[in-house]
Amino acid sequence: MSRLYYSEEGRVMPTLCEELTTFRRARKRLALPATDAPGQVYILARPYPENAAPLRVAVNGVEVAPIAPERPGAYSWYEFPVTDLRAGDNTFELWTDGTAMDGWSLAMEAGRAETGSALSDDGGETWRSDRMGYLNSVLGEYVVRVRLSEGEDPPPPAMVWEVEDSPRLLSLRRLLPPVARDQGPLINRVRALSSWLASSWEHTNSLRAGQYAPWDAETLLAWAPRQVGHNGKRPVAMCVHYAAAFVSCAQAAGIPARCAVLTDAVNGFNGHFVAEVWFEEYGKWAVVDPNTDALFVRNGVPMSMGEVQAVGESLKTHIEYGPGAQYQRTFPHMVEFARENLEKGVCFGHRSVWFRSDLLGRPEFSPPAHGSLSYCETGLVWEQRDLAAGFGMFPFFGDEGYFDAAPAGFGDV
Q1: In the chain, at which end, N or C, are there fewer CB atoms within 10 A of the end residue's CB?
Q2: Are 141 and 115 spatial neighbours (Cβ–Cβ below 8 Å)?
């Protein structure tokens, strides 16, 4: 058993984090219980592409081995064991040896009023806990977590749904395709929603645009097709957003749906974001990808996530594409993704669910940049086996019963 200790939720915007130099240093304090074993420290950070200098870290005043840069230009998880942990506050200080802001960036969750993080501009002589971030303009909490061998992670949270008669759902419902709103076969309604969304806008990731779109279905349907969003900029509207929009639209049509997050590895580049729909007639959650307009079917029955994972490299033989796939295939990057990743089952190596499906009713709980950096949000619930597979920087792990359970409470007012 082990337990993760953290003081942020991984709500990181990669465009608003902390820059480190030999003068500009970051400090994070975490309260920990007494421990008799080494702890595992996790840091989310980004080395610049041309940077060769290591990230330097001191724990409770004692410098640990320097961390060499990996995955240049990307925010990734770096981890190391440490023995100098104590009961009470533990201090982590981070810096690098350069004098300009072109060495390392430390991930930060902006907007936290109470913080255990502080910033120094004079090499650690003085510290402040306001006017943080590279533009000295926000309050924030640095993403540094510790897992101790003692203790046990809490059970994963229950699924949360939209309120059935909420004004937001009723407003969204009027936009849905008529087939999705009727009471015909569920598979037809799901296909209609998937094809409609896949045909609505061009997949635009964080390499092709700079400002992340919110997980708001109506806003996505306004911003993404026009390619104009906040401050007049082209919005990032990628696989995450197709699935988030699908989950809200499905609930507006009275269909239980949830977000499912996929990756090949902790810091892998081969991730994806899909949805799962509850099929009462089969007693299971089935996978739908509204980005590529793909359903996964075996012997005429929609496949669960576990069934999709078990197929592995031959997944292509179980994919049924809808008409929205034709639109997506007009973009070369989507053709390559389908051929080299989706159809080979690469992204299905590890799965999690985003336990909140109330994306319209409680937008403040949606991540502000998921998919633009290594996964880091604490609201992701991974499979229990993933804890031993390197996902120790997350706090929630569920068993088969958790992932396979019927959508309790769906439709409650």
Answers
A1: C
A2: yes
Q: What CA–CA distance (Å, rounded) separates 400 from 403?
A: 5
Residue 309 host element (H or E) = helix 305-311
Mean pLDDT of the chain: 96
Burial of 50 (0-12, 13-18, 19+ CB in 10 A): exposed
Angle at 243 (CA atoms; ends 242, 246), nearest 5 degrees: 90
- Which helix (H) or strand (E) segment holds residue 107: the answer is none
Q: Sign of the CA dihedral 26, 143, 154, 379?
A: positive
Please say whether the beta carbons of 343 and 149 come within 8 A: no
**Best CA proximity match to 403, nearest among 300, 278, 272:** 278
Residues 227-258 pLDDT 10s: 999 999 999 999 999 999 999 999 999 999 99
Task: Say how far apart CA 147 and CA 42 lie, in whole Å.
Answer: 8
What pLDDT sits at residue 285? 98
Positive/negative CA dihedral, 190, 191, 193, 197: positive
**Closest by CA position to 270, among listed 326, 201, 181, 341:** 341
| Distance separating alpha carbons of residues 362 and 411, to the nearest angstrom | 16
Kindly indicate the confidence band of residue 116, based on its pLDDT and cuts at 50, 70 and 90.
very high
pTM of the model: 0.96
CB count within 10 Å of CB 188 equals 12
Q: What does DSSP assign to residue 132?
A: B
Are the CB atoms for 173 and 252 separated by under 8 Å?
yes
